[in-house]
Amino acid sequence: MSEKKRALFICLGNICRSPIAEAVFLKTIADDGVAEQWEVDSAAIGDWHVGNRPDHRALSTMEKHSLPYDNRARQITKADFDHYDYIFGMDKENMSHLKRMAPSGVSKAKQLLLGDFDTDAPGKIIRDPYYEQGANGFEQCYVQCVRCCNGFLAKVQRGEI
């Protein structure tokens, strides 16, 4: 059996978008029967929420869609750039931070904007729902993550990435 592929989903605090994306991708690969071929995690750019569970609205959205989740927020490390094959940012600010944080020289991870794999609107950022009232922004994040994760996995399976 070949070595597992590794994917890491990043957002600002690791309590909204990246946990949703992580949970969605875990379901995507499970539904496709390839979960044993992947290692998946999420992390934050900043350290504000390290050790905390996701925002209650993110957890409610995941529960609504039968996505189990029990991870706690952590901050990305330099070692992650050599451990993971793919590191996904949710917006252009995340991507800018990732570029600055990456070790100088060559690292293993491809840094990718998750929205580039959106099957409806490629290149669109995944907006941060944290400051929105209610759960609508979290639901929109979930729906977009489903499209993006399906789009990404399809490209990997076709050998395009």
Supply the key terms:
single chain, four-stranded parallel sheet, Rossmann fold
Written description of the protein model:
The chain has 161 residues and is an alpha/beta fold. It has a single domain (5-157), classed as 3-Layer(aba) Sandwich (Rossmann fold). It is 37% helix and 14% strand. It contains five helices and four strands. A four-stranded parallel sheet has the order 2-1-3-4. Strand 1 (5-11), helix 1 and strand 2 (38-44) form a beta-alpha-beta unit. It is globular and about 40 Å long.
How many distinct helices?
Answer: 5
Poorly predicted parts: none
Q: What profile does the largest beta sheet have?
A: 4 strands, parallel
Second CATH tier, the architecture: 3-Layer(aba) Sandwich
β-strand amount: 5-15%
Brief synopsis:
This protein is of the alpha/beta class and 161 residues long. Helix content is 37%, strand content 14%.
How do the helices and strands line up, and which of them pair or pack?
Layout lengths: L4 E7 L5 H15 L6 E7 L11 H9 L15 H4 L2 E4 L2 H10 L8 E4 L22 H22 L4
Parallel strand pairs: 1-2, 1-3, 3-4
Helix pairs in contact: 1-2, 1-5
